[in-house]
Amino acid sequence: MWRVRVRNLLFSYQLINFIRMKSVIKILLILLIPALAVAQQHLPDSIILALKNASNDSLRYRAKMQAYFYFEETNRDSALYYANQTLLLATKNNKQLLVARALANKGYQLTNTGQYAEALKNLLQAFAIVEEPKNASNSWMITPQSTPEKHRLLMLSLIHHMFAILMERTQNTQQEVYHFKEAKRIAQEIDNPLRVLLADMNLGNEYINLNRIDSALIFETAARNLVIKTGQRRYLGYILTCLGDIALKKGNKAKAKQFYYESIQSSKEQNNMVSLTRVCLRITNFYLVEKQKDSSLYFAKKMLETFRTLGPTTGQQLNIGIAYQNLYNSYKLRKQLDSAFKYAGVALTAKDSINKERIASLARFQSLSFREQLRLQDLEKEKVIYQSKVRTYTLLGGLGIFLMIALILYRNNVQKQNANKVLEHTLANLKTTQTQLIQSEKMASLGELTAGIAHEIQNPLNFVNNFSEVSVELLDEMDEELDKGDIQEAKTIGADLKQNLQKIQHHGKRADAIVKGMLQHSKSGSGVKEPTDINALADEYMRLSYHGLRSKDKNFNAEMIMDFDKNMSKINVIPQDLGRVLLNLFNNAFYAVNQKLKTAGADYKPGVSVTTFTENGQVIIKVKDNGVGIPDAIKDKIMQPFFTTKPTGEGTGLGLSLTYDMVVKGHGGKIEVNTKDDEFTEFIVSLPV
């Protein structure tokens, strides 16, 4: 989000008085009228001629696509107009792939004008069309060098790319990176260097935002090399700006400045107004930091001038307030206070207005996203219901079909007549579902324990079997010695036999304790706290978690490090709940090191540690792993219900949410996380003594 604050207190005080005396709305109108005047640019003569001479819909479509590409990065309003025109032509002629292409272009422009919910609708429609293989041959744009399937995959790569840009604008970083990588993967599969170039360019920019500078440099360098190889220079200015950002973050100001000026030159040559506006912002900020007042003012004016050519609705993307803010800062640097106050007032009003629009647009987008998730959930539920119906129809035949249809019709009729009652029932159902989900998560954790328990119980059983066999042999030897009359030797054998029986008893009790622990875990629990040995609990659940993962992957090994406070007394906790907390943390830790093991080098040694100690009247439990870590972008989301980074089917997204509830609400404690991406994660549980 573009946020620039007026930091100087003296200027802030004077600014408030200025706004009270002047009408900011009048200033806005004065400054925006030129923008409206230049918003509609003219097409080149060649495209105008192509539009005029187009004798059929196919030629009209091609001409209007040329017009769209001309305006794509120079004027959003005109580009959106031609995207709609191509959509009408493709729909009229039932050219489904071209409908998808037009929807993707429209979604891109809507994204860049801040209309995120509308953009999402268009892109989801485009996905639905392109993912259907039967639509592959339905296009005017298939050439002898391109097969229908290859053209379909090209459209799929394009839509993934446009969807990634929407995710970037709505701050869904994980989805953004995923869709850019999907766009690149498909482009590489069909050998389309332009789409690979664009994916690399945007991935590099996102890694700059994530402060992963080395990764950003790799992607932007790859994008620049593809520009040189293919001659596709339209977005070279954008790439050079990213390289300038990288150089600046590395502390090389001279190199950053060189890249910025190269970007300005390239953006002008390619008539890419978006890239030009972007680099003007960067170099204005550069000169403001360097306190070069003439250069900063020149580029601040250049940014506003270039911004106006993009169309009035683009403020939601670029935030015209930042342009006015830069003019304010530049005039302030020059000590031209009248001009500084003029643009400060306009900047404050513009940013507030645009931020409100952006917040409203994001709210619509989130609402639509939630409805889409509910729709997908409904589709999944309907699938399960359908399968159940099929089994029922097989058993009941025609009568069952008739009854089911009658029930569905009756249910729909009741729902229409009792819409208000449905809302009340829904709230009750949500509470019931929540309870069921929590119980399901508990049972899932029990399943995780099963493999570990099987391994743990096998050891004492092996000891019992071995000592039993040895004891039988000792009895035979004792009989022989008694027959010989050697009483002393028989007593010695009897002593050994007694030791064996004691060991059998010990390991039998161990097996009994494991079984009781399993039964204890499977119970819903009374919620009553009782004195509990935290060290023993942590030791047991760490081993069970480790062996549970080992049962799924025989090649997995990890070092288990236990550093327990031997002097720690028992504390009052709910052992079933705290056991589930520890199991969730250990499962996540072993999963993280296992994931890293798949891609790390031979020198990587996976390890998980648990540490306990008492501090300031609190019992501290630390669970640490040297696995993949947690990116900063999602660190604040990991405790949210249903949030998971695991592939579909491997995680419910409830584990850490329930863990948080059991620690904070159930025991009055707290849970914290320290992490560094691709290095380590440490969860710290604090419980009152």
Explain what you see:
The chain has 689 residues and is of the alpha+beta class. It has 24 helices and 7 strands. It has helices spanning 9-21, 24-38, 45-53, 57-71, 76-92, 96-112, 116-130, 148-169, 173-189, 193-209, 213-230, 236-249, 253-269, 273-290, 293-308, 315-318, 320-333, 337-417, 419-484, 487-522, 534-552, 575-597, 632-635, 655-667, and strands spanning 530-532, 559-563, 571-573, 607-615, 618-625, 670-676, 680-688. The strands form 2 sheets. It has a 5-stranded mixed β-sheet, covered by helices on one side. A two-stranded antiparallel ribbon has the order 1-3. A hairpin with a 3-residue loop joins strand 6 and strand 7. Helix 4 packs antiparallel against helix 5 (76-92), helix 5 (76-92) packs antiparallel against helix 6 (96-112) and helix 14 (273-290) runs antiparallel to helix 15. The longest helix has 81 residues, at 337-417. The protein is extended. The relative contact order is 0.05. The model is unreliable at 1-40 and 313-318 (pLDDT under 50).
